[in-house]
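Weekly modeling sync, notes
Attendees: S.R. (lead), two postdocs, one rotation student

Agenda item 3: backlog of single-chain predictions. S.R. asked that every request posted to the team notebook include the full sequence so nobody has to chase files. The rotation student volunteered to paste the first one in as an example of the format we agreed on. Action items at the bottom.

Example entry:
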Amino acid sequence: DVYKRQFEGHVAGRVTPEPRSSEEATAWKSSLSWNSVFIPDGSDKTYAQMNDKELIPFSHRRKAIEELRKFLDT
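Predicted structure, as returned to the notebook:
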């Protein structure tokens, strides 16, 4: 059924032994979330250490939206 499609975005990476975040980290990037321990492949920073512009290439949401766009264009 075309109305029950699911689009996924995956990001490979690794987990740090200790949480790391920037001083400007917002609540969703806090040390209590996985953002402070996940380093995506291709980066040396955790999500919580990145600013919004740095996060764009590593966004699993962006990847899912790209899959939705491809589907809608066909």
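Discussion: group reviewed the output briefly. The first strand starts at residue 13 and ends at 15.
Action items: rotation student to repeat for the remaining queue; S.R. to check formatting next week.
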